[in-house]
């Protein structure tokens, strides 16, 4: 068996996709699916601040796409917001300071809904958490009935197959049940927030999530540059279904395989806990199937 390392790519079907926005832009993206099974849940990834190097290939999101289809039977949709470049390409438009990106969030949720991807969760990191908190519910309400957006990519219009933790985690707050009341009507199950700065997020945004009943899972580094666990617990206290997980010694960028594994374990613990391996109830750290290195 091979150890899963930073550059490990596990088996999966990864297809480039293009997401059309309601303001007539085309966003570069990728949909990763399990190689030999239908996904049981979906992560819609919202990347860190593009003016500070954030993109769909930021390391946590890339590792989620490289690992979680195989380890947890998840679909992982990631994309570059407007004006953002990565090795995958450049999305049309220009940075909208978190305002115009509402169209980008809506485009991603519409694509996932039209593709029939199941149990959709937003996964935001840093700036991406602000997009999730500010625009996720608005966009999901619009996407819940399907928008008919003409998302492109091999077979994008025809269902799933066609569309293309751990040590140091200290949990506080009520355990949230995935989905909450009426989750199916909203189009998303909830949101997982990695290093949320809460700079652009208002109390009104948090109150909207509280009223929705949908879970917010916030992974907060002990040594974060912007928001640390105690302040996070205070800010998220107004959301009954919010769970704050303080991670000892972690920093905003989650550099290092031990911290990457904590993030992946906590994502899967909420989205598909059946994939965790006893007795530690974590994801495997070694893999017997085919892998390649990049």
Labels describing this entry:
7 helices, about 290 residues, 15 strands, two-stranded antiparallel sheet, alpha/beta
Walk across the major sheet and give the strand order.
3-4-6-5-9-11-12-13-10
Shape: globular
- Number of strand segments: 15
CATH superfamily: Alpha/Beta hydrolase fold, catalytic domain
Span of the ends, CA to CA: 18 Å
Quick recap:
The chain has about 290 residues and is α/β, with parallel strands linked by helices. It has helices at about 60-70, 100-115, 125-145, 185, 205-210, 230-235, 255-270; strands at about 1-5, 10, 15-20, 25-35, 40-45, 75-80, 85, 90, 120-125, 170, 190-195, 215-220, 240-245, 285, 290-294.
Notes on the protein architecture:
The protein is α/β, with parallel strands linked by helices and 294 residues long. The protein has one domain (2-293): Rossmann fold (3-Layer(aba) Sandwich). The chain is built from seven helices and 15 strands. The strands form four sheets. A nine-stranded mixed sheet has the order 3-4-6-5-9-11-12-13-10, with helices on both faces. It is globular and about 50 Å long.
Task: Show the helix and strand layout.
Layout: E1 2-3, E2 8-10, E3 13-20, E4 26-33, E5 41-46, H1 59-72, E6 74-79, E7 85-86, E8 89-90, H2 102-114, E9 120-125, H3 127-143, E10 169-172, H4 183-186, E11 190-194, H5 203-212, E12 216-221, H6 229-236, E13 242-247, H7 257-271, E14 286-287, E15 291-293
Parallel strand pairs: 5-6, 5-9, 9-11, 11-12, 12-13
Antiparallel strand pairs: 1-14, 2-15, 3-4, 4-6, 7-8, 10-13
Helix pairs in contact: 1-7, 2-3
